[in-house]
Amino acid sequence: MKHLQIKFSNELELSEYITNNIDNKALVLVVLSSNSKNAVKCTKIETFVSKVLKDAITLRVINIKEKSITITFHIGSIDLEISKFMHQVQQNINYTNKHYTQHVLDRNSELFTINKLLKKQIYTNHLTGLPNRLALKKDLKKLDKFGLLYIDIQGFQNINDLFGNEYGDEVLQSFTTFLYHFAGTDWGVYNLGGDEFVLLCYEDNSKEYYEDVAKKLIQNLEQITTTITKDEFSFDVELNIMVTIASNTKTPLEHAHMAMNYAKKEHIKVLTYSESLNLEKIYKDDMKYTKIISEAIKNGQVVPFYQPIVSFDGIVKYEALMRIKNDDGVISPYYFLEVSKKIGKYAQLTKIMVESVFKEFENRSESVSINLVYKDIVSEEIVKFIIERMDHYNMASKTIFEIVESEEILNFEKVLEFVELMQKKGVKISIDDFGSGFSNYSNVLMLRPDIVKIDGSLIKDIDTNQNSYLITKTILNFCEEIGVDSVAEFIHSDAILETVKELGVTYMQGYLLGEPTIKPNYKTYIK
After folding, report:
1. How crowded is the C-beta side of 77, counted as CA atoms within 13 Å?
2. How many of the other CB atoms lie within 10 Å of CB of 102?
3. Exposed/middle/buried for 25, CB within 10 Å: 0-12, 13-18, 19+?
4. What is the CA radius of gyration of the chain?
């Protein structure tokens, strides 16, 4: 028990001391009065001290002397009960802590397992089981030197379209097995999604080394055939791939992807990214024209220009040519059409053209031709729109659809179906760019077009190039035999005009006869 001894001259001093120093623990307080004649009576001390301590403890007087009073503050009889209660509380706390600790450990283990599974799902392609794009980006950050082979399966979408996604998945899993065995332990294998894969080399090697590996990969794949069984029939699927290479760049995946787009466009099987390819500029141009296309659609800046197509007899019709006309001037589709296909805006551009042309020629007597590509013809959305607007403006008899023959036609039956539908409605069909690309005389015979348009690459130097002259002459003889009209493009000089006239072409088109203008306007009469 602790003893304290103080002196006080009045009740205020005693009150302040008790308030600041007594903490409900048992102690003996010796109170010394500064004036023995004014000694405080026992009952007054009891009442005063109890009031100050607000009944937090009990008070018992031990001894009273002439000059001092000794009193004890203590918890008293409840000490034992509190002790028992606190002991029970501590036991409960210990028990709770023990079980809570075990629960926390169990929960942490469970969360660790879940986190591990989630992490695996985040960084793994669910179909092939290979690390995905996120995993590749994460791993690339750890490497200072590396080589990356970006692989794309060519025409994979055709497999899905022909056999279904289930069989497409089977092909991807088969290709994954092949790639995994090819890579061995020297390369990491990743599936970025769909038919895009990456082989990652963890060493610094030469450009020639990576190109040799890419060529070997293609050669090995050519020896493998994947068999698909459907409806009791078996089909052998041979996969073709393109490979692009990027190494030790700050953005290897982006560079490899840009190189892949370029390789597809130029039909290159193996291509190594380098600054000399100028792909960064191509990418920036794509971004530039993405913005231009979006603003042009929004602001009504996609407009048709019209170039006259004339005969020696003075018959005039027009070809509608898509342009973007904004504050910077007039932009040719050469710069933005392919970009529009990449960003999913091409269908909108086609619809704008069809609507504008039909509206312009609704009350005109001349015919007008509109270019359609394979993508337009196989699109139910676009074909439906064409028919609706053609009926609305009563344009069937004045419309010519020019089908671009230089594009590869993947579904010829679909094209033939479109041609027959249009011709029944009174629309004329023209084969555009004939004499280049995938020109095929049998296709012309099957489609039975009304017009064949000879490609400008043959006409531009027909007056000086004997080969161009002979090929054009052959095409014109073919047209005469099957009874279709012909159009010679790129008439840019009197010499070329005279040459095609001599060969017997039906119609002519070119800057000599009239440049494309925003309004159909032809003034020159050819005799």
Report:
1. 0
2. 10
3. exposed
4. 45
Q: Which residue has the tokens 């007008």?
A: 368
Half-sphere exposure of 29 (CA within 13 A, CB side): 25
Alpha-carbon separation of residue 448 from 372, 415, 466, 492 (angstroms): 17, 12, 29, 30
Count of positions (residues) in the chain:
527
| Pairing of β 233-237 and β 226-230 | antiparallel
Q: What is the pLDDT of residue 64?
A: 41
Residue 393's Cβ-side half-sphere holds a number of Cα atoms within 13 Å equal to: 21
Q: How far apart are CA 227 and CA 508, in angstroms?
A: 52
76: left (phi over 0), alpha (psi -120 to 50) or beta: left
Structure tokens at 493: 């000089």
The single residue listed with the structure tokens 């009174």 is 426
pTM: 0.59
For residues 498 and 496, give the distance between their C-alpha atoms in angstroms, rounded to a whole number: 5
The candidate with the shortest Cα–Cα distance to 300, out of 348, 358, 359, 248, is 348
If residue 69 lies in a helix (H) or strand (E), which one and from where to where?
strand 68-74
Tokens 């059409």 — which residue?
337
State the pLDDT at residue 481. 92
Beta bridge partners of 68: 32
End-to-end CA distance of the chain: 134
Q: Pick the closest to residue 318 from 526, 518, 527 (CA basis).
A: 518
- Contact predicate 261/278, CB 8 Å: no
Cα four-point dihedral sign 267, 272, 274, 280:
positive
Is beta strand 187-193 parallel, antiparallel or unpaired with respect to 196-201? antiparallel
Q: Residue 152, SS3?
A: strand
What pLDDT does 55 receive?
43
Query: What CA–CA distance (Å, rounded) separates 487 from 508?
Result: 5
- Closest to 480 measured CA to CA, from 444, 506, 443: 506
Looking at 300-379, list the stretches that DSSP marks H as alpha helix, in order from N- to C-terminal side: 333-342, 346-361, 374-377
Contact between residue 315 and residue 506 where contact means Cβ atoms under 8 Å apart: no
For residue 263, what are the CA distances in angstroms to 216, 243, 271, 308, 325?
A: 18, 9, 7, 37, 31
pLDDT at 411: 76
Which pLDDT value is given to residue 70?
46
Question: In 394-493, where does DSSP find H-type helix?
Answer: 412-424, 441-447, 456-459, 466-482
Note whether 30 and 4 are within 8 A (CB).
Answer: yes
What's the pLDDT at 409? 66
- CA distance linking residue 381 with residue 343, whole number of Å: 17
Instruction: Give me the residues of the chain with pLDDT under 50, please.
Output: 1-4, 23-44, 46, 52-82, 438, 525, 527
- Residue 275 per-residue DSSP state: G
Amino acid code (one letter) for 158: N
What per-residue confidence (pLDDT) applies to 424? 96
